[in-house]
Design a protein that fits this description.
Radius of gyration: 18 Å
Strand content: over 45%
Structural class: alpha+beta
Number of helices: 2
Number of strands: 5
Largest sheet: 5 strands, antiparallel
Helix content: 10-25%
């Protein structure tokens, strides 16, 4: 993570749920914690604290037996009040959605 000192830990869990015979949905969540040095370097805040969370959902579709297509959607949010204020004052967003698409093949 950049050139700053400190630690960032992510605690997460996920599960896969079968949907019919053609796909699964993978759901996961994580909670991030930044050490005092990390939070000071990136946000100008003193002390270690829970900083953010992330929730994601991903579908996996098999195409032709050797190829998989996996669209995903995720939401991330800064949860620490002081860090949210710092990020907002810097003109950045505290809450974001992002999307992705992965294509994989087996030989």
């Amino acid at each position: 993570v950049g050139i700053g000192e400190g630690s960032y830990l992510s605690f997460g869990h996920g599960t896969s749920i079968p949907l019919k015979d053609i796909t699964n949905i993978d759901i996961s969540g994580a909670l991030g914690w930044g050490s005092a040095k990390h939070n000071n370097f990136y946000y100008g805040q003193d002390g270690g604290a829970v900083t953010d969370f992330l929730v994601s959902a991903r579908f996996s579709f098999d195409v032709g037996g050797y190829i998989s297509v996996c669209p995903s959607v995720s939401f991330s949010s800064i949860v620490n009040g002081k860090i949210r204020e710092t990020v907002r004052n810097a003109g950045s967003k505290n809450d974001i959605f992002f999307y992705g698409l992965a294509l994989s093949g087996a030989f």
